[in-house]
Design goal:
The complex is a heterodimer. Chain A contains 11 helices and 14 strands. Chain A is α/β, with parallel strands linked by helices. Chain A has a 6-stranded mixed β-sheet, with helices on both faces. The chains are: A alpha/beta, B alpha/beta.
């Protein structure tokens, strides 16, 4: 048995024109895990996954998929992987069943189109044309097209982007089932909740490099606390950026980090019930007015902000 | 995952079936492939139906015009109007008249444009009548027999040309447009991410084109036969063979045109660039012999010229397939060449 489904070392991709999309990316995806590439748009996620899928050529680096390399065992790899691209417009004139039958015919082994339809719970739409399906149903069909060859490894490029919450949950259910059968998944996403709920391990990607790697819990724990306390204080008409000196805030019990972002102050803390009374005590002596106070769990978004100083959503096409 | 099914799948067959379903579920494609050529044939067949067309003569009113008008009106097949010189010019420019007669001081002056179809013949006929009215006598007696039998009329000549035109259009659209459309939709990229054989994909596109052609060609010949009495001279196997070779040739050209285009606009432009010279030069609606000798090597080298020559040879003259070796050879050559180049340059991703 191979322990690694994907091994990728020092991968680079420079597009004609000199744009560098991937610059020295290392990745090891273990067999049987669901692995997420998390990062903003333009971070190099799609380029990376398309190189791993054998669709794009790499500029340099090593790539090994299920123990084979592209250029040597292409057909063997193709028969064992399933792929869902970021945007594929499947033929609108064909029905769900016909589409699955066509894709099934490309693989030497696999499940029947009927089983594929059951897998994505589209039985009532089996004979409907693809053009009549909703966005979520189309995306489920795209996932089924990736699954009909009974792959050992599934690649998904932003599988739920643009879908409503219910459709997203349905896709997650399909992927969890696939994963619990012992298969491997590599997906890209810029949704932190998707990575947190679905992935065993996550690589945070920015500017074509992995900047953090670990399970969602490990990454969150790396911030030193599990809670974020956010508050804002306004002083009369003008906002003051430091109602309380930063040094006093960071000396509060269990506070591991302080971020000041305009009038908004964020504390990373492990024990909010100890921090809050003292914080409020400090604010009482302040002439300002507390306009906002909230406590929430640390998310991968906070990890990304901590690492890059930017948010996942507004870090678009930063290079 | 669920147990593997034992059913056997044939990717080539599934690709052809999928392509056929897509085609027959597209009403626009059905119209252009099956309805449009029939409408075109019916329209042209009616416009250029057999029988004599009246010669339209304007006589400019003048003291001597009475004699001319009387003698022309006494003949069958002449439509005569008496008008002023200005009116005559205006009517001529509008295409309502074949020839203008200006009687001036005991002479006739004929005005016509020799490049207009039938103008020169009209002038000669009018002159003959007016000379006869003035006393000229024929030296040798003559009789006339009109040849309007099936096989030598314009419509007979037109139908093989329409078939050729459709084989060309279908090949270019059916391969060129469809390929680029798949590329734009990223479906081509999705297909090559599977273990699908690329040759299966291309073969499926080409052979589905051949399937669509069978009813198309049969329909044109059948309507031609029942509506216009077209008599097909050669055997159908020979005709089908030439059609198939022509279809493969234009499918190859279609693939070549589409091999790198990434936008529908690009491929549409390229296809028109390829088809336009052949629409004009290859003898669909009028004979390619009309072009000067210096252009003939180019005109005859065009694949559609060869296909039309071959189809007319078989359908109208009943020649055998071996006699049509030139078109067969050239079309196969173009087909193989463009197919190979397309494969080399083809952009799958």
């Amino acid at each position: 048995m191979i322990d690694l489904a994907i091994r990728c070392k020092d991968l680079t991709k420079v597009y004609p024109g000199g744009v560098s999309a991937v610059s020295g990316l290392d990745l090891e995806v273990r067999a049987g895990e669901c692995f997420g590439l998390l990062g903003p748009n333009g971070a190099g996620k799609t380029t990376t996954i398309e190189i791993l899928e054998g669709i794009l050529k790499r500029t340099s680096g090593e790539v090994e998929i299920l123990g084979h390399t592209w250029g040597n065992g292409d057909r063997v790899i193709r028969e064992k992987i399933g792929i869902s691209l970021q945007e594929t417009r499947l033929s609108e004139k064909l029905t769900v069943r016909e589409t699955l039958k066509l894709f099934r015919s490309f693989y030497p082994t696999g499940i029947s189109p009927e089983e594929g339809i059951d897998l994505i719970s589209l039985s009532e739409k089996a004979d409907a044309r693809v053009g009549k399906l909703s966005g979520g149903q189309r995306q489920r069909l795209a996932v089924a097209c990736a699954l009909v060859g009974n792959p050992a490894l599934l690649f998904l490029d932003e599988p739920t982007t643009g879908l409503d919450p219910q459709s997203r949950r349905k896709i997650w259910d399909i992927l969890r089932r696939f994963r619990s059968d012992g298969h491997t998944i590599l997906l890209t996403t810029h949704y932190m909740d998707e990575a947190e709920r679905l992935c065993d391990r996550v690589a945070v990607v920015d500017h074509g490099k992995v900047i953090a790697l670990g399970s969602p819990n490990e990454l969150i724990a790396s911030l030193g606390g599990e809670h974020m306390i956010e508050f804002s204080v306004t002083n009369g008409t003008s906002s003051t950026s430091a109602p309380v000196p930063e040094s006093e805030l960071s000396s509060l019990p269990g506070v591991s980090a302080v971020r000041v972002d305009g009038a908004k102050i964020t504390l990373t803390a492990s024990e909010p019930h100890r921090v809050l009374p003292q914080l409020l005590e400090q604010l009482r002596g302040n002439s300002g007015e507390l306009t906002r106070l909230s406590i929430r769990h640390v998310s991968l978004e906070d990890v990304f902000v901590e690492l890059t100083g930017r948010h996942l959503r507004d870090a678009d096409a930063s290079s | 995952m669920s147990p593997l099914s034992n059913m056997k799948y044939y990717p080539l067959k599934e690709l052809i079936v999928a392509r056929a379903k897509e085609f027959f579920r597209e009403p626009e494609a059905i119209f252009w492939v099956y309805v449009f050529p029939i409408l075109l044939m019916l329209g042209l067949g009616i416009a250029f139906r057999g029988g004599e067309v009246d010669v339209r003569v304007d006589v400019v009113s003048h003291s001597g015009s009475d004699v001319a008008v009387r003698s022309l009106e006494s003949m069958e097949g002449f439509r005569v109007e008496v008008v002023t010189a200005e009116e005559a010019r205006a009517r001529y420019a509008a295409g309502k008249v074949d020839v203008i007669v200006e009687p001036t001081g005991g002479q006739y002056r004929y005005l016509y444009d020799p490049s207009r179809t039938g103008a020169r013949a009209a002038k000669t006929q009018v002159n003959d009548i007016l000379q006869a009215a003035a006393g000229r006598r024929d030296q040798i007696s003559s009789t006339t027999k009109l040849i309007t039998e099936p096989g030598s009329r314009y419509i007979d000549w037109l139908i093989p040309g329409l078939m050729g035109m459709n084989i060309m259009g279908g090949g270019l659209w059916g391969l060129g447009f469809v390929t680029v459309d798949l590329r734009v939709r990223k479906l081509l990229k999705r297909y090559v991410a599977t273990p699908m054989r690329r040759s299966d994909f291309l073969l499926a596109l080409m052979s589905s084109r051949l399937f669509f052609l069978i009813p198309e060609m049969a329909l044109i010949m059948t309507v031609g036969h029942y509506a216009f009495g077209l008599e097909v001279q050669a055997n159908l196997i020979a005709i089908a063979t030439l059609i198939a070779v022509g279809a493969i040739c234009f499918a190859g050209i279609g693939l070549l045109v589409a091999c790198r285009a990434e936008k529908i606009e690009t491929v549409s432009g390229l296809m028109n660039l390829v088809m336009l010279p052949m629409w004009l030069l290859s003898g669909i609606f009028f004979s390619s012999e009309r072009f000067p000798d210096s252009m003939q090597p180019f005109v005859q080298a065009l694949p559609l010229t060869q296909l039309n020559n071959g189809l007319r040879g078989l359908i109208l003259e009943g020649s055998s397939l071996t006699e049509q070796w030139v078109p067969l050879l050239l079309l196969s050559g173009y087909g193989v060449l463009s197919f190979c180049l397309a494969l080399i340059w083809f952009k799958w991703k």
